[in-house]
């Protein structure tokens, strides 16, 4: 299985990373403000309750010392006040949960939508180089993790900070010395938090990286199940998967141990602070420096003060864990496509999200390569000074050895890649001066293994032209002789094709893909080994469909079976990125060169197979 090498990310909290992520919170400003207001009020209530307790304790103590009977009306007022604050706090807790939940859902939606939009704009080279599992992890687990931690973490941090500030202010107002003693352990907690934070950040980043590889391994294991079984790779796959999961398990355990140590350490230090408040506060009470209510207040506040520290530490730890997710998601969101339209083209023709179809010229189908050189790597030319002129409506076949450059030629025509040097003209205009959407909407591309989407046959054909009626879809299937086998299914056109068209044969999928192409009515058509993986009988049907499909259209055919291209207007023999022979079928046979040898060998082989 492919071992996708991810980029190295930073090893400390990166403010720039979080600023970029927080930009997605801008539309949710209203909910964030309301949520923060709610938790600030809740924190204020949390600080008020001990003050009420102090007041009633001191009142009862003073009454007992002075021998004055308790005024029950005052106690009733205290109880009523306590109840009112409790009810109000409950209401604000409900409100903040609602706002935080809304932020979580909306942020997750925004991140996934932005990521999916980015995927629509990326060039084909990105999908060639990036495992599907890695992309899926960004859209699912990383987006979910970020939305959860940011939505609840922001509100928890607001509550914690407000709680600590409120408690500190009240304690310093009441007794500065006792406040300083109680909070003496705070700097130690901060130092410990920084140390643990760095350790946890490193470990959780490693865990997330391995998790991405595991997700990719899952994907390859599922999509490549047939290949794995036929090559008896089950044990190899299992061993590799076990290696990844074992590594993730050991690193996760280490991270869990560090995390489990951190919180008890902070908790113990919090108890030390409470112990200091009890010891020194008790001494102050004994010498009459503070009241019993004040002592109770400091003890309560000492326990309350360190709970927000634990919450802040938890949120920081989660943010540290999530930074790896943020970095990976941003690496997708900030990836720039290799092939883009310039600003002038976008202004005239629109982009992939907003096509200006009214400005799109009709394609006639004339194609020309002018001194085209193309390379994937700096030191290796796939095509070199390649020249080719194709008139509108011509059928061009490309033959040659594997790696000769045939697929590169059609990929350049489709602008899946662009020339490194030279230019490609369509209707005498450099296709870079027109939009990708304009070109791709006029292209039909049928692969050796056509892809069908999950859904019905009717839906899959209608992808060729979404506004097409049922009658137009059926007419397209009749043109490629697919109607009969479709109506032979129990549910006819409403038959589910399964994932990737798995419920249909290769030939049936191919005919459906041709019907889809007919419905789209492209001006330029590309067939890439479209008949190499089907039986002879099905090939005859497909060949008839091809003849109808290519009529009147500029077309490029990459063919393995030369018998399927004998009627092409021009056949190009490509070797090492150059055209070494060209002409129609009869002209090339007369040359007696590479094409002649290739064709006669195939002809003899096919005749021999028929005899046996």
Characterization of the model:
The structure is a single chain. This protein is an alpha/beta fold and 612 residues long. It has 2 domains: 15-333, ABC transporter type 1, transmembrane domain (ABC transporter transmembrane region fold), CATH 1.20.1560.10; 349-441 and 557-612, Rossmann fold (3-Layer(aba) Sandwich). 63% of the residues lie in helices and 11% in strands. It contains 20 helices and 12 strands. The strands form 3 sheets. The chain has a 6-stranded mixed sheet, with helices on both faces. Helix 2 (29-66) packs antiparallel against helix 3 and helix 7 runs antiparallel to helix 9 (234-286). The two termini are 39 Å apart. Residues 1-11 have low confidence and may be disordered.
Features:
612 residues; alpha/beta; ABC transporter transmembrane region fold; Rossmann fold; 2 domains; six-stranded mixed sheet; 20 helices; 12 strands; disordered N terminus
Topology, pairings included?
Layout: H1 15-22, H2 29-66, H3 72-121, H4 124-129, H5 132-174, H6 176-182, H7 186-223, H8 225-230, H9 234-286, H10 292-333, H11 343-349, E1 350-351, E2 354-355, E3 367-377, E4 380-390, E5 395-399, H12 406-413, E6 421-426, E7 429-430, H13 436-440, E8 443-446, H14 457-462, H15 470-479, H16 483-487, H17 506-520, E9 524-528, H18 536-550, E10 554-558, E11 570-575, E12 578-583, H19 585-591, H20 594-611
Helix pairs in contact: 1-10, 2-3, 2-5, 2-10, 3-5, 5-6, 5-7, 5-10, 6-9, 7-9, 7-10, 9-10, 15-17, 17-18
């Amino acid at each position: 299985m492919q071992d996708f090498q991810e980029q190295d990310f930073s090893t400390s909290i990166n403010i720039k990373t979080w600023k970029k992520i927080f930009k997605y919170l801008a539309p949710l400003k209203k909910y964030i403000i309301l949520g923060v207001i709610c938790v600030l009020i809740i924190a204020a209530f949390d600080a008020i309750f001990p003050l009420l307790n102090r007041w009633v304790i001191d009142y009862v103590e003073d009454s007992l010392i002075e021998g004055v009977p308790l005024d029950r009306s005052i106690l009733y007022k205290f109880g009523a006040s306590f109840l009112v604050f409790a009810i109000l706090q409950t209401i604000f807790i409900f409100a903040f949960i609602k706002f935080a939940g809304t932020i979580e859902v909306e942020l997750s939606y925004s991140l996934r939508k932005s990521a999916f939009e980015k995927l629509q704009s990326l060039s084909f080279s990105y999908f060639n180089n990036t495992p599907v599992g890695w992309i899926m992890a960004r859209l699912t687990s990383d987006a979910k993790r970020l939305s959860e931690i940011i939505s609840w973490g922001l509100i928890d941090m607001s509550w914690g900070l407000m709680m600590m500030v409120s408690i500190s202010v009240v304690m310093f107002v009441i007794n500065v010395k006792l406040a300083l003693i109680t909070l003496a352990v705070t700097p130690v907690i901060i130092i410990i938090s920084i140390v643990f934070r760095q350790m946890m950040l490193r470990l959780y980043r490693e865990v997330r990286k391995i998790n991405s590889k595991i997700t990719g391994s899952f994907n390859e294991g599922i999509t490549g199940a047939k290949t794995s079984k036929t090559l008896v790779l089950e044990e190899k796959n299992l061993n590799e998967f076990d290696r990844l999961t074992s590594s993730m398990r050991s690193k996760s355990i280490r991270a869990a141990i560090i995390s489990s140590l951190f919180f008890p350490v902070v908790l113990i230090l919090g108890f030390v602070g409470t112990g200091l408040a009890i010891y020194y506060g008790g001494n102050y009470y004994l010498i009459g420096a503070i009241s019993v209510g004040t002592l109770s207040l400091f003890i309560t506040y000492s326990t309350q003060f360190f709970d927000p520290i634990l919450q802040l530490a938890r949120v920081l730890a989660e943010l540290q864990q999530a930074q790896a997710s943020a970095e990976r998601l941003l690496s997708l969101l900030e990836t720039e496509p290799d092939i883009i339209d310039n600003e002038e083209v976008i202004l005239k023709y629109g982009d992939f999200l907003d096509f200006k179809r009214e400005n799109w010229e009709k394609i006639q189908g004339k194609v020309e390569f002018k001194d085209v050189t193309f390379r994937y790597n700096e030191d290796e030319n796939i095509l070199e000074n390649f020249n080719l002129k194709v008139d509108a409506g011509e059928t061009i076949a490309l033959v040659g050895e594997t790696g000769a450059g045939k697929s590169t030629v059609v990929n350049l025509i489709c602008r899946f890649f662009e020339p490194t040097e030279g230019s490609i003209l369509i209707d005498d205009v450099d296709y870079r001066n027109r939009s990708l959407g304009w070109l791709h909407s006029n292209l039909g591309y049928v692969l050796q293994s056509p892809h069908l989407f999950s859904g019905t046959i009717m839906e899959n054909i209608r992808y060729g032209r979404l506004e097409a009626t049922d009658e137009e879809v059926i007419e397209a299937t009749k043109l490629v002789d697919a109607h009969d086998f479709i109506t032979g299914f129990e549910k006819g056109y409403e038959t589910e094709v399964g994932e990737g068209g798995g419920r249909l044969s290769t030939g049936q999928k191919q005919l459906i893909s041709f019907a889809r192409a007919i419905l789209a009515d492209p001006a330029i058509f590309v067939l890439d080994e479209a008949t190499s993986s089907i039986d002879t009988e099905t090939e005859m049907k497909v060949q008839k469909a091809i003849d109808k499909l290519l009529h009147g259209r500029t077309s490029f055919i990459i063919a393995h079976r030369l018998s399927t291209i004998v009627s092409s207007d021009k056949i190009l023999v490509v070797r090492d990125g150059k055209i070494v022979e060209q002409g129609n079928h009869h002209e090339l046979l007369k040359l007696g060169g590479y094409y002649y040898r290739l064709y006669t060998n195939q002809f003899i082989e096919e005749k021999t197979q028929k005899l046996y």
